[in-house]
Amino acid sequence: MKWKEESFFIFLAVIIITLTSCAPAIKNLTPLDQAGAQNLLYPGQEYRIQAGDQLDIKFYYNPELNELVTVRPDGRISLQLVHEIMAAGLTPAELTGVLKEKYAVEVKQPEITVIVRLFGGQQIYVGGEVNRPGAFNLIGSMTVLQSISLAEGLKDTARTKEMVIVRRGVDNKPLIMTINLKKVIDGTDMSQDIILKPFDIVFVPKSSVAEVNVWIDQYIRRNIPFQPGFGIAP
Prior knowledge:
Layout: H1 2-21, H2 35-38, E1 54-59, E2 67-70, E3 76-79, E4 83-86, H3 92-103, E5 112-118, E6 123-128, E7 134-137, H4 144-150, E8 163-168, E9 174-179, H5 181-185, E10 201-204, H6 208-221, E11 226-227, E12 231-232
Parallel strand pairs: 6-10
Antiparallel strand pairs: 1-2, 1-5, 3-4, 6-7, 8-9, 8-10, 11-12
């Protein structure tokens, strides 16, 4: 299934290029200005374990069996007593059920919890008006602001009031919404700093001032000769 994720990631990257070439259209997107709107960015899909994920397996009544394991490239994990277990493709709840069934033969009252501690090999993309755009590994509960930090911060030309999040939705259809990171930075609305999911794209558009400067540079400075201190040359 990995190739499907990579293909979707490439598809979202194409969306970034499209957004870059038509930044004014970003204003037509729905702003994340209410708690209910955030649910649109979190479709009702449970996370499924993948190769490279780090799992914390906890036993309530048998802590000596607790383990922190990494899902191997073949999708399996190795545990005490039950040995090889296929974990990739299962939700944490489904894996919990499998482990309870397996350990019931070996342990009395196998109360188990599976926690995904680290998402292995999963990335997000940060593009637009940041100092180092590119793909970054998704580590833990990373927020939009933390992803901007990974990209070495915002440029002076960034439009922080209308940043765009592109996310894989139901049936792999992209969901696109804007957030107001300015309210996060000044502390007036921290709910805008949403937690990112694998293969999210964070796009920072140019500010309106920056767009005017680009227009002046492209259509005036490069086409009409100027002389320093004297305006347009004769």
